[in-house]
């Protein structure tokens, strides 16, 4: 049983390249066929060229002292014409190959990128917070664009060289059977060297992915706009650059050491092969001098030997390259085989519209993978339809984590979350997320137009829809946008031409408009006004109920003055809810909330 499993997994490993060919085919069937046809023609035509050369030389030799030279030339002329045509076709195929390869490569690259994008979108948020995922993604991105088409090329080359080789072997067998053995023995050491160093490189690359990523990270920081201010003010540029070079140098030394050993081993293998082949050359020349072979035969065998050796070398190179590709394809499949833990239910239930009883957290606990502590402990919490609740608590107390669970970015480790009595895990993920409009404190800044920035909150509405402006009016973003040169058509951020940079508070107003646009039953705002000026913040919170219409709302904020209007306030501490009630109830309790509120209020007196 165990042996059977091992054999099965070995076969799976050895045939990894087959699905990769499927990917190449799917990327562009037309270009794939064109590539195969060209490669096949290029495999056969050189044989024809050699054979024509032999025919021409033999005809010339037999007519050397012909009585009628022009008749002899007439005999040779058709052969010359055919040889010329073959040469032209070979050149044509070479040019077409360049064209086909350029077009096909782009198709495959884009197709593979599409697959990686789809997988990245499907992946759980947890993966993005995990270094191993980033390693796998980096390796997959390295291999995806070129390994699959390379496999196709290698197979085609192997086929091409295989065809030529069979013909050459046929020829050389008529000379001496031992020559084939010599050719094989001569070529094998180089193949073994190549296979060995493919493995060494593969495992080295896997070990070093993280270091490669660290260097990329440093390189990115040096060039990214987010870091430009601090790098200049703290004078970090040269230090980052030095760290970057230190890592690159380490990688360079290690890679060079492997490459040097590989070159030496490869040279020794090739030199051995060369000595064998020269022995065979000597044998052919000796036979010709002895008069056993004709001059045409000498040329034929000489070329057949040379070509045969080249073909065999190329064939074995393709096969060992295939071995290498097969090995490195594991990097791609490792990424493509990642399975999301947040899965769709087999029989999804309809999400209630409207929600009547509410959302209930029932004894929910949660621990991040690889973390020693529980981020949430026995959370019990209710959000009734149309109600506004507030979560307050110190940094790291678990507020954002609670929201991540509500949106099923993670599932609870124990306990459950229900909507009208149905577990969140029983709804289609998209249906659930459609009903929750969330803006996290690290909201996205899209370098698109202002209108698109808001519309991304609900891409089901049309680009020119009046709801975009009305959401902007509710968040205070309209005033900002009206002052931009192209108003709602102005590109935000400085990444693209004619882009206009906003202040942090202005970006936040745009993000808030995105949340208002979402046609959801629940709105979750994680520090929605942290960067806004007091006037803007006042405008949002004094009209909050009106702004969110009949949505249920969850507010996370450290500014306790803004949570007074909440129907219920939950105070969190180290993953637990330690107090809950209305503002006045909590003030009366004289507990944690009252203390925090008093402390903040004192600062304003
Ligand atoms: N992806 C993660 N992996 C592991 N631990 C995490 C992860 N995200 C957060 N944590 C930990 O979980 C705890 C709760 O974090 P959370 O972000 O929910 O806090 P918060 O109350 O929202 O804090 P803040 O007020 O600073 O936004 C913290 O101790 C944090 O270190």
Automatic annotation (TrEMBL):
Class of enzymatic activity (EC top level): hydrolase
What cellular component terms from Gene Ontology apply here? plasma membrane
Regions that span the bilayer: 33-57, 77-97, 163-193, 264-286
Q: Does the keyword Membrane apply?
A: yes
Record has Transmembrane as a keyword: yes
Can you provide one Gene Ontology molecular function annotated for this UniProt record? ATP hydrolysis activity
Query: From what superkingdom does this record's organism come?
Result: Bacteria
Q: Which residues form the ABC transmembrane type-1 domain?
A: 36-324
Q: What InterPro entries does this protein's entry cite?
A: AAA+_ATPase (IPR003593), ABC1_TM_dom (IPR011527), ABC1_TM_sf (IPR036640), ABC_transporter-like_ATP-bd (IPR003439), P-loop_NTPase (IPR027417), Type_1_exporter (IPR039421)
Protein known as: Xenobiotic-transporting ATPase
Taxonomy, top ranks, is: Bacteria, Bacillati, Cyanobacteriota, Cyanophyceae, Pleurocapsales
């Amino acid at each position: 049983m165990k042996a059977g499993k091992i054999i099965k997994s070995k076969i799976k490993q050895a045939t990894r390249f087959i699905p990769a060919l499927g990917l190449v085919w799917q990327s562009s069937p037309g270009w794939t066929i064109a590539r195969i046809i060209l490669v096949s023609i290029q495999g056969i035509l050189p044989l024809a060229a050699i054979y024509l050369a032999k025919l021409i030389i033999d005809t010339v030799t037999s007519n050397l002292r012909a009585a009628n030279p022009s008749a002899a030339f007439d005999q040779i002329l058709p052969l010359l014409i055919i040889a010329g045509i073959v040469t032209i076709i070979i050149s044509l195929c070479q040019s077409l190959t360049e064209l086909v390869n350029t077009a096909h490569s782009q198709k495959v690259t884009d197709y593979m990128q599409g697959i990686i994008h789809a997988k990245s979108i499907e992946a759980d948020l947890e993966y993005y917070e995990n270094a191993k995922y980033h390693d796998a993604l980096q390796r997959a991105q390295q291999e995806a664009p070129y390994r699959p088409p390379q496999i196709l090329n290698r197979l085609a080359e192997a086929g091409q060289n295989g065809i030529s080789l069979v013909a050459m072997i046929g020829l050389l067998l008529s000379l001496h059977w031992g020559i084939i053995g010599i050719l094989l023995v001569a070529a094998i050491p180089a193949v073994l060297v190549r296979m060995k160093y493919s493995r060494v490189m593969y495992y080295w690359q896997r070990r070093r992915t993280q270091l490669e990523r660290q260097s990329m990270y440093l390189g990115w920081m040096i060039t990214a706009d987010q870091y430009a201010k601090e790098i200049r003010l703290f004078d970090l540029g040269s230090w980052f650059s030095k760290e970057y070079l230190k890592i690159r140098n380490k990688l360079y030394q290690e890679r060079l050491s492997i490459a040097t050993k590989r070159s030496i081993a490869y040279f020794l293998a090739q030199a051995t092969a060369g000595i064998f082949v020269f022995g065979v050359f000597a044998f052919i020349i000796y036979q010709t001098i002895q008069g056993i072979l004709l001059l045409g035969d000498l040329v034929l065998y000489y070329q057949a030997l040379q070509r045969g050796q080249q073909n065999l070398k190329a064939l074995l190179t393709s096969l060992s390259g295939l071995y290498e590709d097969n090995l490195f394809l594991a990097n791609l499949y490792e990424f493509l085989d990642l399975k999301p833990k947040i899965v769709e239910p087999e029989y999804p239930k309809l999400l209630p519209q409207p929600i009547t009883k509410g959302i209930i957290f029932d004894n929910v606990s949660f621990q991040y993978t690889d973390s020693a502590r529980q981020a949430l402990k026995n959370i019990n919490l209710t959000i009734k339809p149309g109600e506004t609740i507030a979560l307050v608590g110190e940094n790291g107390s678990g507020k954002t984590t609670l929201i991540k669970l509500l949106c099923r970015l993670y599932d609870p480790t124990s306990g459950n979350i229900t909507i009208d009595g149905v577990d969140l895990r029983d709804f289609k993920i998209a249906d659930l997320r459609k009903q929750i409009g969330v803006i996290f404190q690290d909201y996205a800044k899209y370098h698109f137009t202002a209108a698109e920035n808001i519309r991304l909150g609900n891409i089901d509405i049309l680009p020119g829809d009046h709801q975009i402006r009305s959401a902007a009016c509710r968040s205070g973003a309209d005033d900002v946008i009206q002052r931009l040169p192209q108003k709602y058509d102005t590109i935000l951020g400085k990444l693209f031409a004619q882009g206009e940079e906003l202040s942090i508070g202005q970006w936040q107003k745009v993000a808030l408009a995105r949340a208002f646009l979402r046609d959801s039953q629940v709105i979750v705002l994680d520090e929605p006004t942290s960067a806004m000026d007091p006037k803007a913040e006042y405008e949002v919170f004094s009209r909050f109920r009106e702004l969110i219409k009949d949505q249920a709302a969850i507010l996370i904020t450290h500014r306790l003055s803004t949570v007074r209007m909440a129907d219920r306030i939950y105070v969190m501490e180290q993953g637990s809810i330690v107090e809950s009630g209305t503002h006045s109830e909590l003030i009366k309790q004289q507990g944690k909330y009252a203390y925090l509120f008093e402390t903040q209020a004192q600062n304003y007196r």
